[in-house]
Amino acid sequence: MLLVILGAGASYDCMRAEYVNSRGEAVAPPPPPQASQLFAPHFGPVIDRYPPARAIAHLMRGVAAQGTTSIEHEFERIVGEARDSEIIRRQLAAVRFYLHDVIEESTQGYAMEAGHGVTNYHALVSCTGDN
Questions:
Q1: Range of 82's domain?
Q2: Residue 18 lies in a domain
Q3: pLDDT averaged over the chain?
């Protein structure tokens, strides 16, 4: 059995990837977001799909801007408050869908733009052994 654990560093190498645009210029497409960038304003179209997530997104933007605590630590605090509040539980549910869309769309977009869908993950899960 093969166990693969992917974490924050899994996409580190992709941040240095470059591709050639239609004018022949080497450019780097925007990489997938790091935790502190997950609620950046340019993800506005995604937050518009999940209005209950807006209150938490606003809070997380402040946390990211201050840099005094981590997004993960703030989530733990909010989850603790959610036990006593149906409103917060609904907001957290919306944030889960929001995060899913942000991560999926940004990583899929990056993989397609930077490598036309060809990534190291294909070699990782390849059954042929031709890595």
A1: 36-125
A2: no
A3: 79
3-state secondary structure (DSSP) of residue 116: coil
The two three-digit tokens of residue 113, written as one number? 């733009």
Q: Which of 48, 56, 32 is nearest to 104 (CA)?
A: 32
Establish if 27 belongs to a structural domain. no
Q: What is the pLDDT of residue 116?
A: 66
Express each pLDDT in 74-101 by its tens digit: 999 999 999 889 999 999 999 999 999 9
Is 2 contained in some domain?
no
Whole-number pLDDT of residue 57? 96
Structure tokens at 49: 């799909």
The pTM for the full model equals 0.69
124 CB-near residues (< 8 Å, 6+ apart): 4
Query: How many distinct structural domains can be found in the chain?
Result: 1
Query: For the chain, how many residues are written?
Result: 131
pLDDT bucket at 15, cuts 50 / 70 / 90: very low
Are 32 and 10 spatial neighbours (Cβ–Cβ below 8 Å)? no
Angstrom distance (rounded) from CA 18 to CA 28: 5
Q: In this structure, are residues 27 and 17 in contact, taking their beta carbons and an 8 Å threshold?
A: no
